């Protein structure tokens, strides 16, 4: 009896310092925004983009009804409509640039243009930037055929429609720092639009917190295997950062943090937030930058040192991507709207919205995050420095077993140092800042402190 009392006293004292399994705080404004996501809006956007016949990067730029130029101008006109409800904070443009002939998929020097909407932040001292994209261009079987119909309903009018739905909803709200919504071009010809924007961001020293790429998020039925699943979506993230320094490489190896790159932390963040806000959708964390034989617009951002991931449907249907529109043996080929699952696409868009808005309202990440390794103990001591800027309500210490892909436990603390009853030899940890409404920053992996 006496031993039991001592154990209870110890646990009481322990829990007075921090809270295990903190009650999750749902932001009613985020829930309201999610309720505003409409599958019929996105279906209308997809079908409108299909009406341009082809959106091939090298297609007609002069026509008002067909080709990439007409599609660009229409997307910008939609951004301009959203701007009317933004109190002047949302502005749009077509960011033109020239690509030299590459001897492969760009036959001659060509002017391209990304369609961008920028939502200006309310805090002039907060230089953070969030970017969300889909690619506007489409293709058929021959990547160089700019004349044939290439509807590109799922690849990637789906990503563009999701991005535009976020712009429509979020432009009515205020966020402390800059959000960029962009329909990039040149993806099928070599990721040229994304590379241009990533280079602009790098040269301009933009503080890009995260880049989210949506590419094919509207199909739930696989070809061949005929698997149908509208409850999972893949998030691809790189393991070792492209621009890892020698010092960072040594630290990664010494702490075994191969699965804790910034992009992996963003992917886990998406999984956590989606579980909180979106019903019947699970994030499948794919530990690859992208699929075999394919590429995505997040890659140029990763190559420039930014944190970037790709959303992509769980089951791909190869009858309806990169195919001429035709019928063979009673099988319809071509990327057409009638083969899309718009309710599935709505859920993926809600995941994007929950993630993007949480990050947009979050405090900055804690700095100087470390873990003490000077003593042999079954407890772990973590410490960090409070971030500048927006006030922090507290911090989440995230915990997972070393073989786990995602965070399994959360300890909430108010201080900037905590000793927790989990061995540093058996678990991985990270720390994120949290505001009073539950918006959390990205997680920071600790470095050893001797």
UniProtKB/TrEMBL annotation:
Specify the Peptidase M28 domain's residue ranges: 114-325
Q: Name one GO cellular component term.
A: extracellular region
- InterPro entries in the record: FN3_sf, M28_fam, Peptidase_M28
SUPFAM superfamilies recorded: Fibronectin type III, Zn-dependent exopeptidases
Q: Quick check: keyword Signal in the entry?
A: yes
Q: Which stretch is the leader sequence?
A: 1-21
Single annotated GO MF: metalloexopeptidase activity
Q: Which UniProt keywords apply?
A: Secreted, Signal
Family annotation (Pfam families): Peptidase_M28 (PF04389)
Know the name of this protein? Peptidase family M28
**Source organism (scientific name):** Flavobacterium micromati
